TrEMBL record:
UniProt keyword list: ATP-binding, Nucleotide-binding
rRNA-binding is among the record's keywords: no
Single GO term (MF): ATP binding
Domain AAA+ ATPase: residue ranges: 24-305
Protein name per Swiss-Prot or TrEMBL: ATP-binding protein
InterPro entries named in the record: AAA+_ATPase, ATPase_Atu1862_pred, HerA-like, HerA_central
Residues making up the signal peptide according to the UniProt record: none
Origin organism lineage: Bacteria, Pseudomonadati, Pseudomonadota, Alphaproteobacteria, Acetobacterales
Length: 499
């Protein structure tokens, strides 16, 4: 039996319908600038198909939680769950065939990527006996599958991008039908967008997005200008589930509403006098005890682990502790470096954020019973940059290396490790590290990023790059008069020692 979902009306006034079974098999991509009606289109699709198929909505703004009142969707607030808990929730959702809305409104952007990746991973990894059809709607898909690096960590971005790729590329055999919406096609990863066979293209103004939309719809480039003329709620539709030729559709009405503020004008109340306005706005704040916070802030994981590492029984805490001798302090530093060396031996350690490495470091310190006070995250970052630079322990404690560390502190935290790697090479008169080695020290696989780092540090007055014969280069550290030997920038990646 064919299930037809009426999405709206065509330009001629005829109903525009999706073949639901075909849509689930071929997936859907919706594109349009802010205000073009993407969320309205998704809401119409969800409402019309709710009686026929299980639905999962990944909602970064909390716009679709109203589906719970009308259609019985379960709202899962991601802020109340860990990544592991969300993965279990997703597995139960598939087994019990419950329609849900994953509300990511109350978490930061990077946490949104991690939690959404865990939830989508749970949907994807469920056992074969639970592979029932599910429509998975992801709003603002460019957040979870960006075409380029963003301000979030590489680890979170890779996790979310991998989950979205699994959904769109491999999800069909597992019963997962991806429906993704984005404001800009240029910001959406191409391997994710390319897996959709149905398209709904709304109003857009940027030339690059109009050109990509025209290409996806099989239209000529000169016809791309029409996307600027589309009204709010109008889309050009194409795909095996709706039309074999580009079809202009006006989306129909919806039963549920969004909580987001609309563009309608709301006149302000009658103007108060200046004295009344001052009293209302600039009055003394309420006592903190009488104000209820919207949501209790959570302590970050590194702080919690640091507290665990420092925890001691009360009886021992009451006893006076004698100050450690220089020999004991040196032994403590040696053991910390040994633990850090084990952390950095993991294959993906160079590309993991410092905060993640810090958690692993604290756990390993507890396992190996490393006594003494636990170092905080700033001290750990300094220890990490020195270790990644491959400096021997006796050199790290010398006065010359202290000058290099002092110079590095004027640079951003993520650049200090690269500067210290160059400082080590200059101090030991070794060849200038290759671009691949610098990229690894930065925690990236991008050779271009390593070159931009050198340019950035030269602009900041931290070093001078010299071109040598044969295409080689050397680096001079400003203020230290240290210079590396000439090295090949295109050479292989060198695995520096960690002591």
């Amino acid at each position: 039996m064919t299930i037809a979902i009426e999405i709206g009306l065509t330009a001629s006034g005829n109903p525009a319908e999706f073949d639901l079974e075909e849509l689930l098999s071929t997936r859907l991509l919706v594109q349009g600038n802010s205000g073009s009606g993407k969320s309205h289109l998704l809401r119409r699709l969800l409402e019309q198909s709710a009686p026929w198929v299980q639905q999962v909505v990944v909602d970064p703004e909390g716009d679709f939680t109203s589906l719970a009142d009308r259609f019985g969707h379960l709202v899962v607030d991601a802020a109340d769950h860990t990544e592991a808990a969300l993965q279990v929730v997703a597995e139960r959702v598939r087994r019990h065939r419950v329609s849900v809305v994953l509300n990511l409104e109350h978490v930061e952007v990077e946490a949104q990527l991690r939690l959404a990746a865990a939830f989508l991973g749970g949907l994807f990894d469920v056992d074969r006996d639970a592979w029932n059809p599910v429509m998975v709607v992801v709003d603002e898909a460019q957040l979870f599958a960006p075409a380029a690096a963003s301000e979030t960590s590489d680890e979170a971005r890779r996790a979310a991008l991998g989950a979205m790729t699994n959904l769109m590329c491999r999800g069909r055999k597992r019963g997962l039908a991806g429906v993704i919406a984005t404001q800009r096609l240029a910001k959406l990863a191409k391997n994710v967008a390319a897996e959709a066979s149905n398209f709904m293209m709304g109003r857009t103004f940027l030339d690059i997005d109009m050109a990509r939309a025209a290409d996806l719809l099989g239209m000529e480039r000169r016809q791309a200008e029409m996307f600027r003329d589309l009204e709010r709620g109008q889309f050009m539709a194409l795909g095996p589930s709706i039309s074999r030729r580009p079809l202009r559709v006006r989306v129909g009405l919806v039963e549920t509403g969004s909580r987001s503020a609309g563009p309608k004008l709301v006149p302000p109340p009658s103007q108060a006098s200046a004295a009344e306005a001052r009293e209302l706005i600039l009055a003394a704040p309420e006592p903190e005890a009488l104000r209820l916070p919207r949501r209790a802030p959570r302590a970050p994981a590194p702080d919690i682990l640091a507290q665990l590492a420092q925890a001691r029984p009360a009886a021992q805490a009451a006893e006076p502790v004698a100050p450690a001798s220089p020999a004991e302090q040196a032994e403590h530093r040696r053991r910390l470096r040994a633990v850090l060396a084990k952390v950095l031996m993991e294959p993906d350690a160079p590309f993991r954020p410092a905060s993640v490495l810090y958690q692993d470091f604290l756990v390993r310190c507890r396992i190996e019973e490393v006594g003494g006070p636990a170092i905080d995250i700033p001290a750990f970052r300094r220890l990490l940059t020195t270790a990644r630079a491959g400096i021997a322990a006796e050199v790290a404690e010398g006065s010359e290396w202290a000058q290099a560390v002092s110079r590095a502190e004027s640079l951003p935290d993520d650049v200090q490790g690269v500067f210290l790697l160059l400082a080590r090479a200059a101090l030991e008169r070794q060849p200038c590290p290759s671009d691949a080695t610098l990229a690894r020290a930065y925690g990236s696989r991008s050779i271009g990023r390593a070159r931009r780092l050198l340019t950035y540090m030269e602009e900041q007055g931290a070093l001078v790059v010299r071109a040598e014969r044969g295409g080689k280069r050397s680096v001079v550290l400003v203020g230290l008069a240290w210079e590396t030997a000439p090295g090949d920038p295109n050479g292989p990646e060198e695995m520096g020692p960690v002591t």
